[in-house]
Design a protein that fits this description.
196 residues, alpha+beta, five-stranded antiparallel beta sheet, 4 helices, elongated
Length: 196
């Protein structure tokens, strides 16, 4: 979903040159996407999923994974439901049926981050994660402090010491962590409360 050519171009605008081939850069991009999925605990790229309930009864079905990109099919007792027989909350992964249903139900669906968020949130974040990996090579945890980013907090020569105001939130590592935390709060699967 994110091409090596696009990331290479975005990095070039920031003055970062990449000496890797497109295939090598694509491997790095894919590894950063995998890392990001692991850190936020949600699907970023599209994943086909299936939920089956043997003895379903009710008007609401909560899917285990979300956000949902699309519902491919809902099969109730061997017959596919028409899309006008239900509506879906794609962000929360909840299917609302127009009437009470019962029986064996299977839902075929695709999870992942919607295209609008992918373009505006994920692509720039992956670009920064790749840039950080190329420039600082710090591993999975992005540095929130001074080390690794070449920022000077103070100078000392002889008996004279000069301190600089330093805001660690301005570092690339801190900005990456903050954006990952925002994604966690927005997309991380949470426990659903069920009433008995």
């Amino acid at each position: 979903m994110i091409s090596a050519e696009k990331i290479r171009t975005l990095l070039k605008f920031e003055g970062v040159t990449v000496d890797f081939t497109d295939e090598e850069l694509q491997v790095l991009i894919d590894s950063k996407l995998d890392e990001l999925e692991g850190l936020i605990g949600a699907d970023i790229r599209p994943h086909d999923r299936q939920k089956t309930v043997g003895k379903f009864k009710g008007k609401i079905l909560e899917l285990n994974f979300y956000p949902i990109i699309q519902i491919a099919d809902i099969v109730l007792n061997g017959y596919s439901l028409c899309n006008y027989e239900y509506h879906v909350n794609y962000d929360l992964g909840i299917i609302y049926f127009n009437h009470r249903i019962r029986g064996h139900i299977t839902v075929y669906y695709t999870t992942g981050i919607p295209e609008r968020d992918f373009s505006y949130i994920i692509t720039p974040l992956i670009k920064d994660m790749v840039s950080y990996a190329l420039n600082y090579n710090e591993g999975l945890k992005y540095d929130r402090g001074i080390s690794g980013e070449g920022t000077i907090a103070s100078l000392k020569e002889g008996d004279v010491s000069i301190g600089f105001a330093y805001d660690s939130s301005l570092t690339l590592g801190a900005r990456i962590n903050d954006r990952i935390d925002d994604l966690k709060s927005k997309y991380c699967y949470s426990t659903r409360v069920r009433w008995i």
